[in-house]
Amino acid sequence: MADREETPPTLPAKDKILPIPIEDEMKGSYIDYAMSVIISRALPDVRDGMKPVHRRILYSMHRQGLTSGKAYKKCAKVVGEVIGNLHPHGDAAVYDALVRLAQDFSMRYPLIDGQGNFGSIDGDPPAAYRYTESRLQKVAEESLADIDKDTVDFTPNFDDSLLEPTVLPSKLPSLLLNGSDGIAVGMATKMPPHNLREVVDMLTYLIDHPEAETADLLKILKGPDFPTGANIVSSSDLKDAYETGRGRVIVRATHEIEELDSGKSRIIVTEIPYQINKARLLESMADLVRDKKVEGITDLRDESDRQGMRIVIELRRGEIPSLIYNQLLKHTDLQCTFGINMVALVDNRPQILSLKTIGSEFIKHRKNVLIRRTKYELKKAKERAHILEGLKIAMDHIDEVIAIIKGSKDVETARNGLVARFGLSLIQAQAILDMRLQKLTGLEMAKIIEELAQLVKEIARLSEILADIQKVYALIKEDLLDLRTRYGDERRTHFITDSGEFDARDLIADEKKVITLTQSGYVKMLPLDTYRKQHRGGKGLTGIDLKDEDLVDRIWVADTFDTMVFLTSRGRCYGIEVWKLPEGSRTSRGKAVANLLALSEGEKITAMIPVKSFETQEAMVMVTRQGFIKRTPLEEFKGCLRQAGIIAHLFVNDSDELVNAALSDGTRNIVLGTKQGLAIRFPEETVRTCGRQSKGVIGIRLEEGDYVCGMEVLKEGAKLLVVTEKGYGKRTDLEEYRVTNRGGKGIINIQVTEKNGLVASFREVSERDDIVVSTANGMMIRVPSDSIRNTGRNAQGVKVIDLAEGDKVVGVTVVAPDEESSPSSTQTEPAATPPTVH
Questions:
Q1: What is the reported pTM?
Q2: CATH architecture under which domain 365-486 falls
């Protein structure tokens, strides 16, 4: 068995199989495939800026004579020639590449002049290639100029039937002018287009100052110049991108504001960012209006025509156009990021290039092209001068030449006779034999002598160019400046300054918001003044449109720019900035909180606290259903903004859960209240400070069946408001709650009876506060706290809200107004200081 393994059987040569490990074969095959994609398909050459398909399309059209001065020809003819002779790929791929070269919204300087439907900026597809026609643009001919003068190398095509150029002579750097976009294997390129005048000025400067740095070049070439115009938001990222080859620029649409006689305004968008589909952009804006993510827009239409782009956004009277526009920038592609990844082939190897490297490589390419062209022209000039010199000798001895020719029996004898008599070369002798008799006229003889004199001068000029490299660089500059004059145009993309990086917070009014959370986990926010103040005992107004099986669980009030710290029943902590919460109408249900926070199954929000800064001396006070309490420094919660949240509390047993939390400075008293109407007051300092992953200490000892339903961190001069499930409430002076030791059984908080029901919530209030009461069926009422009777601890309270049958109170929020409303006002203004939340 071992022998058979060591000595494989001998097979005939034609059937021999070589054993190769499959991993080696796959590695080699994949590398071959990857390099083929990189070199032969996806990445442009730094010299002419072309991918193979683009180079083959232009060269094929050049061979067919489809120049700018000739008639258009069907694109089907071009595609057929390309795939039949040069590009062994599908016709769709070739036609797509041809179409892009003709689109003025894709190419800064289109290389193909198309006739027919070549697609649109709305994403409309082009017509089939049997319907469209094309020819080369004049600027494309500059890429093919001198290609027949041995300026570039040629290689056999895929079937060795003809030769194709490996690169185009290219008088202009198409890689910079039109950019490039491609995905290879393990790498990609994304080059922005630029302005021709700036590119030429940069190249001429680089020729004169080869030691120049990127910063010097960027004083001339300002940055990308997109065919669709728009604006670039100035940033230091641009310099880094051109130095390192990788970076980004922020591109923003161009707009203007029109004020109408009716007092309304409209936003007119005249230019959009590069490579953005206009139709999809309009759809995304319409979706924002329909979903009420952007409000204040009454109409949206596209009035674009042959004169240019015009997207009209009509606004409701009284809206601020700049605010609406900035919201659209945030939510749509009116502002987007263009990623720069300057990867191209240098000597058939992909490299990440800086701006200077691209410019230097192009200059090097043009230098080689001009040297080869000069050598070619010098060779042709010398060959022609050599012939003319022979003709001149023949004319000086015309009678003797004629005699030799007449006396010869054949052409070869005549040729040899001329060579022997006058010392001519075979080429010169043959030229004399081929000369027509009309050349013997005096005028023709003068032309030959004049042409010879001109050739002598041209030979001297060409020789001088080859002898002095500076003359080659002068020719490069001469060509560039000529092209600048003929094809240069004004910059389309302009630079704008921005006050720092774009911050969506600048778009949002700073105001108080009511945040509502239902039992099934839907959250929303809306302005506090949505709920007008009513008299005590009113029926309230609908605060949320609920499904039959859903109930309002809790409500909070917070400032727009607070960080809302969510604490869950399982002791986890999450953070979201308030302005990022979904905003809805008064009757909308909101958005599932599970889409905002990574909650586990069965986990629910039990507390939410507005935090302006985590860098304070405050602590988070937390209480559990079974009466355990602890204090943790607020700064330990600053990591809560991460999507997965952080641990806030550990429990003594699995049946316990977090009930409420609040912020405190460590010097105040704490009141815990239970569902059956008991309460305990003790100094906060008796609760020791501990970490997030601790279990805390006993705050109140509970009777059988009772549990903690709330907690307040007290401040001086306030009263304690208790509201029951059946809509009754009372206020009680804090002096009636004596300070005891932590861990006691507590004292009576409210007399719980069949009439008023169990405790729904208790809150600390002042005389000027308003309270917002919410019910399980989605009703809300806002009343002044001083309209609720002030009584002792043993009272049952007075009716705060008139409940429908089967409804019950589930939450109370306290609102502290900034100042009294005017006599004509029906609403109160929200407080500047965030209230304590439930």
A1: 0.62
A2: Orthogonal Bundle (1.10)
